[in-house]
Design a protein that fits this description.
The complex is a heterodimer of chains A (520) and B (353).
Chain A (H helix, E strand, L loop, with lengths): L8 E10 L2 E11 L4 E5 L6 H9 L6 E6 L2 E2 L5 H6 L2 E4 L11 H6 L12 H15 L14 H14 L4 E5 L7 H16 L3 E6 L2 H7 L2 E6 L2 E7 L5 H9 L24 E10 L2 E11 L4 E5 L6 H9 L6 E6 L2 E2 L4 H6 L2 E4 L3 H5 L6 H5 L10 E2 L3 E2 L1 H14 L16 H13 L5 E5 L7 H16 L3 E6 L2 H7 L2 E6 L2 E2 L3 E2 L5 H9 L3 H10 L1
Parallel strand pairs in A: 3-8, 3-9, 6-7, 7-8, 13-20, 13-21, 16-19, 19-20
Antiparallel strand pairs in A: 1-2, 1-4, 4-5, 9-10, 11-12, 11-14, 14-15, 17-18, 21-22, 21-23
Helix pairs in contact in A: 14-15
Chain B lengths: L1 E4 L5 H25 L4 H13 L2 H26 L7 H16 L11 H30 L3 H21 L34 H18 L1 H11 L1 H6 L4 H28 L10 H11 L4 H22 L8 H21 E4 L2
Classes of the chains: A alpha/beta (520), B mainly alpha (353).
Chain lengths: 520, 353
Amino acid sequence: MTGRPEPVLRLTGITKRFGSLLANDGISLDLARGEVLALLGENGAGKSTLVSILFGHYVADAGTVEAFGAPLPPGDPAAALAAGIGMVHQHFTLADNLTVLDNVLIGVEPWWRPVSRRAAARTKLLGLAARFGLAVDADARVGDLSIGEKQRVEILKALYRDARILILDEPTAVLTPQESERLFETLRAFVEAGLSIVFISHKLGEVLAVSHRVAVLRQGRLEAVLPAAGTDASALARLMVGREVAQPVRAARVRRPDDAAEPPVLSLREVDAVDGARTLLHGVSLELRPGEIVAIAGVAGNGQQPLAELLCGLRAPARGALRVAGAPIAASPAAFIAAGIGRVPEDRHHLGVIAEATVAENAVAEHYRARPYARGGWLVEGSAIRAAAARIVADYDVRCRGLEQPTRQLSGGNMQKLILGRVLSRAPRLIVADQPTWGLDVGAVAWIHSKLLAAADAGAGIVLISEELDEILALADRIAVISHGRLSEARPVADWTTATLGLAMMGADAKEGADAARAA
Amino acid sequence: MRLERRETASRTAMLVAPLVAVAVTLAACALLVAWAGAPVGRTYGLLFDGAFGSRFALTETLTRATPLMLTGLAAAVAFRARFWNIGAEGQLYLGALAAVAVGGLHEGSGFDAPLPLLFAGMVAAGMAAGATLVAGPALLRNRFGVDEVVTTLLMNFVVLLFVSWMLDGPMKDPTAMGWPQSVALDPELEFARLLEKSRVHAGLLWAVGLAVLVWAVQRFTTWGFEWRAVGASPEAARFVGVPVGRVMLRAALLSGALAGLAGVSEVAGRTGYVTLDMSPGYGYAGIVIAMLAALHPLAVVGAAVFVAGMLVGADSMSREVAVPSYIADVIVSVSLLAMLVATMLAQYRIRRR
């Protein structure tokens, strides 16, 4: 990228404050024609704020945005679209009940036009799809599409509006490794066609693989902009976090699970979960031994949620048997808590804690009626609760202003530490951790990993449901893959490769298979 | 413009908010008073004089506040657990009717039971009637997710028609010259007067005592935690093992019982019999009072006195100056809006984008 041409996008001195939080601090960046610029940073580093300003969702306190040499009016997404900026959000903005073509046409056609010019639209859409290898069925209902296909529709939507600058917000978060690879191919085709791309991610590997330059954000400030060619993952990680981060190493495990010697702490046999007429889980079987970490890998939305609900006592099996330490168990959270099962839910804000309750109350929430927190099961013992909470806050490094602080005010990482403290301080024999590090910064992730490993070493069996392959490979003894509500056999980590995991994650579904074949 | 949650809603701000709300309300309503052509200062003077200015005014206000405290508590208890009981009006009437059914002079004589037993039976019947009335909507909500706002609200009309039927039929007072009025309560069962030559009755002590009791339960028992947990987030409460359905049912039944007790208190403390106009919307006013009190049981007492004072004061004021007594309803309504805005501003700040 020598002799840089006139930039297609230029941000100058973008500053944005939310209350006392400085989300963006004087950020200046430019994007060249035909360039992929990666925006790298931890959660909360200011990536999303920056692109939201760029796209007109937010108005910056200071600074300007120029696209193709002309300034963009602040706070006007329509102007950003008109200027040729297209955005693909992490959470898709598609109407599930409409077809692909309808979704692409929403908001494009003027409302007063009596008939929709669908034939011309279809030709243009299919032309774009063919040109960039984004195979879609224009008449398919979006609700019937896979996640990867939905993402293609989002990208096509932007292209249909003649976007020349494409912003992708964490596009690989929902994709299998193979799907990610295909996305990167598509991005390369875009660049060759003269489009420019802003690629937001927190995954170092893909940033290095796909981008020309990397802009690293940390705590709202632009730490560095460097060419991807001359750097490596550890240098980027240092810039992103601001210090060296020690990843927990699997070799640090003290104890290995003894095969077959001990009875399973959890066993699922041919368990189905249904929702009305829909079957969410088909004949799921799994055995977990004490001291063992079994990871459930898979792309989001393949049955992780019903499985987690099943393992947290929130859902009863429609068929099959769920046993904890050899005994059947009633499908209620109270029974699961009483059986010594530590549950770390995915949605920590709405399920893991009662947001309006205090830190102290949440610290003992699972045992609020038991001694010593309540006398006779009904009279609250404030001092015992505060003592227990203070211990958890200290032992698990929960940063809060005080035990009486509403939990809602805690950061996601501290909330997760509080939940983990509540669970681990009871020395559970079984831990169900659903996306335990989702959305947390690198430091908190490493800390949580080390705590989970320590719990396994102390003899707890752990079911780790995760969409992050790195996490799974770092922690698991065995891996089972969930796809379309079916769980594969749990096999030792050594038996898997990234490629076989990716294939299993796609499942044996005919449509996906055909897709893959078409792409090949 | 956008709203941003303050990181810390300061305690002083939360305490000052109601005062600011009242000040804003009076200022806003002063415009209406002036529009009606009355002198603002004198009108407000008369209003407050009529509400709190004399022994008579004060006792009248407290008498009016008694049922409002109970219906206010009923709403506060249910709303805290996010059960939207809008049916306090009907529960009050059914409670009153049940009280007379147990303690009334049917055919000139009551039940032949010892007086203390009869009294306890009367109170229990009234509370049970209110609780029973809300049990249906609560179970429907728990089992089938039927919106309790609709069911409890509609039950009010059903109950009023039922009361009307009773007053013209089985429970009709034969000596009432054809007025739709129930048989009278046994005078022996009436609540004690608290002050000579006033209408203030023991129901006031019941109401204040229950407010303290509800506060203590919320503050010191696991029930209080369960109510708050279910009210704040039913999903999270369920996750940590709170029996959400049972907690909500419990709150609903308690709410109905409190509203039923309001009916008992009105019959035994004030009217002595049931008529179709014995409550000028106390059940609905209870919702306003609960919201004014931010669902705090002790604040309900103050809010009920405020609302009662406005109603009583406006009546006496409108006899002196040409301002309709409806100004009381306007003041109460505006104060609710002002209170909601004030508490919101104590928790959020407005920023221009």
